[in-house]
Amino acid sequence: MFADIMKYKELLYFLVHKEVRIRYRNSFFGFFWTLLEPLGLMVIYTIVFSLILNVDDSAKGQNIDHYFLYVLSGLIPWTFFNNSMKKGTKALSGSSSLIKKVYFPREIFPVTMLLSNLVNFIPAFALVIAVALIVGQPIYWDQLALLPAFILLQSVFILGLAFLVSVLNVFYRDVEFITNLLLRGWMYLCPIIYPISFVTESNNAMIQQFEWLYFLNPMAVIISLYHGILYQGQTAPLEYVGYSIGITLLVFIIGWVVFKRLNRRVGEVI
Amino acid sequence: MTMEAIVVNNLTKHFRKAYDKTLKGYFISLIKREKRYKEFTALNDVSFSIKKGESFAIIGKNGAGKSTLFKTLSGIIYPDSGDIQINGKVAPLIELGAGLSRDLTGAENIRLNCAIFGLDKERIEEVYPKIVEFSELEEFIHTPVKFYSSGMKARLGFSIAIHIDADIILIDEVLAVGDKDFKKKCYAKMEELRDSGKTLVIVSHSLKPLRKICDRALILERGKVVEIGEINEMIDKYQDEKKEKKAKKNKKGA
Ligand SMILES: Nc1ncnc2c1ncn2[C@@H]1O[C@H](COP(=O)(O)OP(=O)(O)OP(=O)(O)O)[C@@H](O)[C@H]1O
Ligand SMILES: [Mg+2]
């Protein structure tokens, strides 16, 4: 796979460049425009959950200062995931005019999608760190040093899923619709608006029972890893990090195999 | 060195005629227990070979499977059985708007296609002005392709295909919409390419120019090879067949 992609690096560069340029047509403003969604959501969630539902009172007990920053530091990686999935479903079906007329390795499309979203995500996360410095939130540098590893884990997970949904969406156009629906629910299964201790230290018997299930969701673990950079004690237990790496690799392999199999008929179905 | 540019043996392709490309449709037909697809044979045991430097025409009626054949040759569609050997780099020019991305401008499409066909940066900068010049689209080169007329798309597609250093060029009916001057220019270019040793495979419904450009031809009918032979002979045969059928019809009508 990587040999193939290296052979087409000129093409990959062109496609990523094109995607990014379309988004940043007006460079500086373009960047903030991509932040509009996570920032808007941050304001909404902060109002609803801290002012109305008082989540942040109980969060304060867990050493979570600056609730808005906690929300933002989870929302930015989540937005990376969310946008990648939304774009991922259309990665092939949106390029039908090309796919029908010329052949080149089609895995380039999901990879392009991932790289162009990565280009958005990295400066956005740098902004989170900057905000943390401004409001005086401590930064755990040992965790920050692991940031590339967190990003890599998330990218592999995204790419595996993108392989899967992009090719399925060629055959069944409502995969796009179902993916969008699942993403909405999925967000609440990640520690974004609530601290992870709501799960790990809950008194509710049912939550205790299903804790392991909660952490089988790699995105919950990945978001918690990002949180760990700013908030001590918000990282998922280490054994679950291990599980997540395993599941991520499994998802990647499944996505890749399905993609390769279905790819044979993409040219005629699309 | 092999002498053959393209060798095709017993190529067969079935299409499934899907009814509904949604999961909803899939489940509905599952519940109703209806057959989800009909099979349709688009290519049926097709075999032929084309020598290097040869110009080869493929003629046949609408729906005969000509474009499908080109798509399998260029790797866009996988055949069900049979094998294809291709010696050299292929530039496919399949149907209108070949390989053009609607949202990109003409200039971007040129660069995109050059990258797809493995040209490096330097080479792209080298051929870019030639492509623009040949297409005569200087004025519209920074306009998104979705605002192009069909003839303009054909111009761009043809200009790209002949400049990407391919050894084999597949041309599928792309000149049908070009204006007279451009057609003339393209036919001249094709002869020039043929004389410079490139392999051309041409699908066209305008038979007259084929006589001049091509050496041999293949008649395809409903996915089957009817005959392969010298170009003039094949075209005459193909036209006679048509006339015969027409005559029969007229008789019946009378
Ligand atoms: N992707 C596809 N899925 C299902 N059927 C297809 C597909 N592509 C082509 N067909 C069918 O295969 C047959 C051959 O089509 P093809 O496009 O190869 O014809 P053609 O010879 O190029 O015709 P024309 O002269 O009109 O261009 C047609 O009956 C068409 O309906
Ligand atoms: Mg055709």
List the helices and strands and how they pair.
The complex is a heterodimer of chains A (270) and B (254).
Chain A lengths: L1 H6 L1 H15 L3 H26 L2 H7 L5 H27 L2 H4 L8 H28 L5 H4 L2 H25 L3 H14 L8 H4 L4 H5 L1 H4 L3 H10 L10 H32 L1
Helix pairs in contact in A: 2-7, 3-5, 5-7, 5-9, 5-10, 5-14, 7-9, 9-14, 9-15, 14-15
Chain B lengths: L3 E15 L4 H10 L4 E15 L3 E5 L6 H8 L7 E6 L3 E4 L12 H11 L4 H15 L14 H12 L6 E5 L7 H16 L3 E5 L3 H7 L2 E6 L2 E7 H23 L1
Parallel strand pairs in B: 3-7, 3-8, 5-6, 6-7
Antiparallel strand pairs in B: 1-2, 1-4, 8-9
Bound molecules: adenosine-5'-triphosphate and magnesium ion.
Which features characterize this protein?
heterodimer, A: 270 residues, mainly alpha, 15 helices, 0% strand, B: 254 residues, alpha/beta, Rossmann fold, six-stranded mixed sheet, three-stranded antiparallel sheet, 8 helices, 27% strand, globular, binds adenosine-5'-triphosphate, binds magnesium ion
